[in-house]
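Sorry to interrupt, but I need a hand with the structure work. Could you write out one complete protein record for me, on any chain you like? Could you add the entry underneath, on a fresh line?
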Amino acid sequence: MLYSSLVAASFLLLVSFVLYRQRGFLVSLLPVHLQDRVPPFLQPSPNDAHGGMLGGFFSSSPSSTARYSRLGNFDWGNSIRAGLNSSLFDIEANVRDGDQRSGLDERGAMDIQAIMQQYGVSFDEARLIRHKQILANNNIDPLTGLPLDSKAVTSLGGTVGRGGAAGSSRLP
């Protein structure tokens, strides 16, 4: 009886620790209007800036505190204020033209802003770094755009030159 109570208490303590430690990830799953209502003691701390459930569970890098900044509701104005604008990606022109879209993807914008702060690069360079990371995560060579999977089909065969030009209509 005492042993089972001790096991149950240990399990509850472990679950509580994991939930508290991963509160940044769990809060990010909530809709934005509910994220603003989360009590301050449950708000994600700067150390919770990792990207996934176990992404930063075992690491405690001191640079993670410099990367975290909550963006809140993200529209075109917030994008411009966050420095997510360039001559190649002109958000100010979108605002001037009365663009009806709600703004940049919040998660993507946060990723780009974190890359800008972490590596000290411009907005366009951060977009390129993020794009290459996404390609690499999907098993695609970031330099060539070709799949890294050796079994991937990259052409459908069809050699031009054997037995006439491709598309010729020779009957046997």
User: Anything to note?
Assistant: The chain has eight helices and no strands. Residues 76-138 form one domain. The helical segments are 2-21, 23-28, 32-35, 64-67, 76-81, 91-96, 106-119, 123-137. The CA atoms of residues 99 and 163 lie 54 Å apart.
